Amino acid sequence: MSDAPYTRADVTPQHLFLNRRALIAGAAALGLARPAFAGSPYSTDEAPNSFEDITTYNNYYEFGYDKADPAAYAGKLKTDPWSVTVDGLVDNPGTYSLADLIAGQPIEERIYRFRCVEAWSMIVPWQGLQLSGLLQKLGVKPEAKYVAFETVVRPDEMPGITGGMIDWPYREGLRLDEAMHPLTILATGLYGKPMPNQNGAPIRLVVPWKYGFKSIKAIVRISLVAEQPVTTWNTLAANEYGFYANVNPEVDHPRWSQASERRIGGGLFAGRIDTLKFNGYGDQVASLYAGQDLTKDY
Ligand SMILES: Nc1nc2c(c(=O)[nH]1)N[C@H]1C(S)=C(S)[C@@H](COP(=O)(O)O)O[C@H]1N2
Ligand SMILES: [Mo]
């Protein structure tokens, strides 16, 4: 496995970044190994943030509220062995080892924009599997309308768990059509490496058209349910964090504008950039919300 296409990204300022295809072609011309994962039509051509940016500026409140806390403390989390319980309205419920759970599901690279509700963003080269394939394998019953997820709770390994305002586990959920959308992945790594603990090892959700808080980390439970599930940020402040949480520059957070965002790692020449509706994935996902008022279903 080679990290060749990324080595340059790690050291090259974004404004000088050669496009990815040129880098891959360049690597091939130099006789370097080909990248481990084939490109995907779902990936953006934008320059990925550096591995450093992606793994040192994190939100993962189980390890503390500061952006640097997850990188400092998440190493304590034991991610192997790992099992995931699948329950609810599903043909094949059970507690699966991670390997058994994802067996047979193709792992692809997906380079996605990632936009936090706090108005910062990054470009992340994930690798993972489409949630749709896993749900098909598990057999979703017709009565199921939503998918609910839970993060592991291990107070001994997660110093942020004690005290604080959150009723652990961290919980998230998607409507079934959102979960089945091909852009929705369960990510098992980034930059061609296993998922760093601070980014949600060993398996986390990534839903690129939604605010980052929907992309729940360190998943240990996947439940197929009939009703809209209770989710962490929506429970904490429903007027600030909706269940849908689609990236939307037209609907401000009550305490700040969502019209623009700060691209992390942009360096000297970076200013704020405009936030795109559905984080730029509108062509693919806007039809999921036809007929919904997104100022109410924020
Ligand atoms: N379990 C858990 N998952 C979580 C969070 C968290 O605090 N706990 N934070 C969310 C938020 S607010 C964001 S922006 C992303 C950050 O992902 P990253 O650290 O990989 O960039 O994770 C999301 N998933
Ligand atoms: Mo976030």
TrEMBL record:
Q: Which GO terms describe its molecular function?
A: oxidoreductase activity
Keywords per UniProt: Metal-binding, Molybdenum, Oxidoreductase, Signal
Q: In which domain of life is the source organism classified? A: Bacteria
Question: Which free-text remark accompanies the cofactor?
Answer: Binds 1 Mo-molybdopterin (Mo-MPT) cofactor per subunit.
Where the record annotates domain Oxidoreductase molybdopterin-binding, the positions are 77-233
**EC id:** 1.8.5.-
Residues annotated as binding Mo-molybdopterin are N58, Y61, E62, C116, T151, N199, R204, S215, I216, K217
Q: What gene name does this entry carry?
A: msrP
- Keyword Repeat listed: no
Describe the task this protein carries out: Part of the MsrPQ system that repairs oxidized periplasmic proteins containing methionine sulfoxide residues (Met-O), using respiratory chain electrons. Thus protects these proteins from oxidative-stress damage caused by reactive species of oxygen and chlorine generated by the host defense mechanisms. MsrPQ is essential for the maintenance of envelope integrity under bleach stress, rescuing a wide series of structurally unrelated periplasmic proteins from methionine oxidation.
Q: Supply the InterPro entries for this chain.
A: MsrP, OxRdtase_Mopterin-bd_dom, OxRdtase_Mopterin-bd_sf
Q: Which residues form the signal peptide?
A: 1-38
Q: Indicate the quaternary assembly.
A: Heterodimer of a catalytic subunit (MsrP) and a heme-binding subunit (MsrQ).
Q: Which residues cross the membrane?
A: none
Name recorded for this polypeptide:
Protein-methionine-sulfoxide reductase catalytic subunit MsrP
What protein family is recorded? Belongs to the MsrP family.
Q: What cofactor is this protein dependent on?
A: Mo-molybdopterin
Write out the catalysed reaction: L-methionyl-[protein] + a quinone + H2O = L-methionyl-(R)-S-oxide-[protein] + a quinol; L-methionyl-[protein] + a quinone + H2O = L-methionyl-(S)-S-oxide-[protein] + a quinol
EC top class named in words: oxidoreductase
